[in-house]
Specification:
It is a single chain. With about 300 residues, the chain is mainly alpha-helical. About 35% of the residues lie in helices and about 10% in strands. The protein has ten helices and six strands, in the order αβαααααααβαβαβββ. The strands form three sheets. Strands 1-3 form a two-stranded antiparallel ribbon. It has a two-stranded antiparallel ribbon with strand order 2-6.
């Protein structure tokens, strides 16, 4: 996923949700963004949604170009590349549909502005294309070997998620069980927070997100600046993004996910809030990194 600063496309669906509270510019009176809270997200919002929109369509354009150039899938290498491109396009359109509903649906290489500026497709039409791409990708892709590339299991898991969102419960269950029974990955049984660390030894990750290329070294720090409390807490983030109290309190005592929730004072508001320690300075990546990798 590529885009200008902030290139961190991954946290946007967290920050722009009803369960997460993020202060814009450190101002307690200004929530981020108000248009999204009003259920009217706009691609013209320059802070996050606009860049999210640009990043998704950049990935879609790149995927369309690759898909259009692969005419013969007899080669195993080309089959894999075609499958990965279909997954990336499907993932990008699913991100857009989650935020905007219906968007302009382009599945070929377009250079004429009149064809690019066509009317929006409906959310149903966009998600139909997402499912179509993922169904086509699954038989093309090989089994999981690395989270750095889309695999058959990654496509199955994404399609399971889309199916669940669309109320296709039987298909979602079937796909999820295929991934679980493949034995390619396993759930963490000890320290849950390990899954959020760069180069983590945890065996949960099926597919990881990368943003880039980065315009400066700042972005190599990953996501702890979004999620961590301000100093002196581990992470030394801005402390402006917190979790809704109702959500934080919904985790049962024995739930291993509770270990990434910590209550601390928020300097901007003077309130005690629940922080998500999903990412910390443990996510630091090399200064030479051109792409930021998100576990």
């Amino acid at each position: 996923m590529s885009g200008s600063w902030p290139p961190q496309s991954y946290p946007m669906t967290d920050i722009y949700s009803d369960d997460i509270i993020s202060l814009q510019g450190g101002n307690p009176a200004q929530f981020n963004p108000q248009a999204y809270e009003a259920c009217n997200p706009s691609a013209a919002d320059g802070f996050g949604i606009g860049r999210y929109y640009i990043a998704a369509y950049t990935a879609i354009g790149n995927a369309n170009f690759i898909i259009s150039k692969i005419g013969n899938t007899a080669s195993p290498a080309l089959k894999q590349i075609l499958g990965e491109s279909l997954v990336i396009r499907a993932h990008s359109y699913n991100l857009l549909a989650e935020v905007f509903g219906g968007v302009v649906l382009i599945t070929s290489v377009e250079t004429e502005i009149d064809r690019i500026r066509k009317p929006k497709s409906t959310e149903t039409e966009v998600l139909d294309q997402v499912e179509k791409d993922l169904e086509a990708a699954i038989p093309l892709l090989g089994d999981f070997t690395t989270p750095k590339a889309a695999s058959k299991q990654a496509a199955q898991l994404l399609l399971a998620r889309v199916s669940l969102q669309r109320g296709k419960h039987a298909r979602a269950k079937e796909l999820a069980e295929l991934v679980i029974n493949s034995g390619k990955r396993s759930l963490s049984t000890n320290t849950y927070s390990n899954i959020f660390r760069y180069n983590s030894p945890a065996q949960e990750m099926i597919w990881q997100m990368s943003d880039g290329p980065m315009p400066s070294a700042y972005e190599r720090y990953g996501l702890f600046s979004f999620y961590s409390p301000a100093p002196p807490f581990l992470g030394n983030g801005t402390g402006l993004t917190s979790m809704d109290d109702v959500l934080a309190d919904s985790y049962e005592v024995a739930d291993t996910r509770r270990e990434v929730v910590r209550k601390a004072r928020q300097n901007a508001t003077g309130r005690d809030v629940n922080y998500m320690l999903k990412y910390s300075t443990d996510t630091l990546q090399p200064a030479s990194a051109v792409y930021v990798v998100y576990p």
